[in-house]
Amino acid sequence: MKIAFLGPNATFTDIAVRELFPNDEGIPYITIPDCLDAVIKDEVDACVVPLENALEGSVNITLDYLIHEMNLPILAEVTAPIRQHLMVHPDHQHDWQQIEVIYSHSHAIAQCHKFLHHQCKGMKRISVTSTAAAAKYVLEHPEIKAAAIANELAAKEYGLTIAKADIHDFDFNHTRFIVLAKQPIEMVNQTLQVAGNKTTLMITLPDDDRSGALHQVLSAFAWRKLNLSKIESRPTKTGLGNYFFIVDIEMSMDDVLIPGAIAELEALGSTVKVLGSYPYYHINKK
Ligand SMILES: O=C(O)C(=O)C[C@]1(C(=O)O)C=C[C@@H](O)C=C1
């Protein structure tokens, strides 16, 4: 199988692909929407994209594309530990404190905010398309006093020297990635154990702006004892103050409880779309 990921080689998403699909071919794309488009256009069988980070929250571009631009089911989710390192071209390994500019993915920069604030005063931060793209750029530009924030695999792949390891602000730095495909696909590394199952719904509240609407929605889950592990709002992009809710239910789609909750929400005037019902996995390797 061909699996699209946010490239180039050695991004965190690439690491997730290598863990999930060790025997398949990963194909790097420049942006997250490019990965999703590649599935739609049948250039690949599936894609893996980041969805949420424990320190920085949702990857909004992923959520927005899923909601507004395409109709691809979530087939699986994997959570992986994220270690960020500051790395430099070997020419600059002894003078990294003279670095003038730090490149990385915006999420990675945000995960290292405290380190950057306290130890990198006056250094510019520039967001690029991924952590590995930053590492590649630093390799290709030894003439610039630059560093990248990326993972250990990227340091190896692009021949950079780690100047400061583990610069993320909190030890528990994890990112959730999702697998999307048009058709069910042969899952995954058999050595990964299923940690549980989830169903993700997108809910739009009734447009009459009635008070207590969100409370009514949540009650439909509460009295059925459906455990919600996440509730998140995103703009509908139709007007200020208009939001969707994305809800994760901690079980797979059944014949009674979830369909019952959906029917109740629809009777209240909400619209509901099932974004996927899927197993989730944990990668423990740091
Ligand atoms: O740039 C990468 O290496 C990615 O895979 C993207 C990404 C993200 O979008 O959050 C993935 C995991 C980390 O949280 C940092 C960056």
TrEMBL record:
InterPro entries: ACT-like_dom_sf (IPR045865), ACT_dom (IPR002912), Chor_mutase/pphenate_deHydtase (IPR008242), Preph_deHydtase (IPR001086), Preph_deHydtase_CS (IPR018528). GO terms for biological process: L-phenylalanine biosynthetic process. Signal peptide: none annotated. It catalyses: prephenate + H(+) = 3-phenylpyruvate + CO2 + H2O. Keywords: Amino-acid biosynthesis, Aromatic amino acid biosynthesis, Lyase, Phenylalanine biosynthesis. Residues 2-182 form the Prephenate dehydratase domain. It is an enzyme of class 4 (lyase). The keyword DNA-binding does not apply. This is Prephenate dehydratase. It comes from Robertmurraya kyonggiensis.
